[in-house]
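Q: Convert this sequence to structure tokens.
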Amino acid sequence: MESNNTQTSDTEQSAPVIEQPIIAEAKPPKRKLKIALIASVVALVIISAGVVAFALSSTNIPENEAPAVTQVDTTETTPDAPEAAEPINPSSIPLGDGKYGSEPRAGYIYSCQSNFNGPGAFKEGPWIDTTKGVWSKSGKNVTVNGDVTWENAEFTINQTEQTRDLIGNGLPINHGTGTFPISSSDDAYSYDRNPNSIRSQSVSVSLPLNPTVKSEPTCLSMGPIGYSTNGVALYNALDAGGRDAAAHEIQDTCGGHPERSGSYHYHDYSDCINDVESEEPLLVGYALDGFGIFKYEQNPTNAELDECHGKTGQVMWDGKMVTMYHYVVTTEYPYTLGCLRG
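A:
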């Protein structure tokens, strides 16, 4: 018992010794404090880096999105951009042979006539590739020779409160024509032997001054479907055999030729219609329903037009910029009109 008490006493006496280590170990808390401070600094650095990274990433979002927004805005402000298709290559135009029917259809002619067995060009030129179903307008280098001037050509456009009256003799007032019938010495004779002569006609057509769109389109005849601003009749894009007239038939350098009654006419847009292109789009003619036919600097495609080959948009009409329906010239068949919309 005494021994145990002694040991206990020894333990109590050695307490200072025990306390000494405790005093000696008071330094670790300082190190821990330093470590804690360092850890806090590191944590702050990490947090700051995270904040900076977040800020940078947040800043990059509008920078990355900005070009996309600009691009969309630019596209939307470009006329017809959403509907625009690839331009038609003049050296590879889809043939319009047989593209007609008894109802309106985009890229076709709504024809009043269903049987075609008339004459036309008897031989296909090398510019036509029936295997691929295309033809080359730029490669069609055969035209009817001659430069016949028509000093008696007449054409006037008069307006009343209700009508637009076209009066003339069907001859071009601003350019000459080829020599018809086609001579056997003409290289065009190897493909097309048009036997018709150009003769003066009696043109007196009254059109509505302010045409309106009808609920149902009207078919196109095989005669005049409109008149160009130079007095020449415009026919649909078919020849007497139901083929693409612009591709198969041989016209003069202005793209015209006569039919059996002697009426000189175009089947396609002619570069000879207007001497000066003063506005865009350019009025090049009037359809028989009164609506205008316009030529754009960049020809649209059929995909951008309706079944009658037209659309509603801004055009210069009787000296004013208005939004109205109009027909549009294209590089591809049917070139001017597919049917009458008014």
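The first helix runs from residue 2 to 13.
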